[in-house]
Amino acid sequence: MSWRWLLGRMVLLAVLVFLAVGGIASWRALVPVSRLQVQVPGGVLRPGREVWIETVSSGRGPVQLRLEALQGGRSELLASGHVASRRWAFWDPRSVRHSMVVSVRPQTIAHLVAGPVTLRATAIGAPAWLHRPAPVVRQIEVACQP
Question: How far, in Å, CA of 103 to CA of 9, rounded?
Answer without folding.
Answer: 58
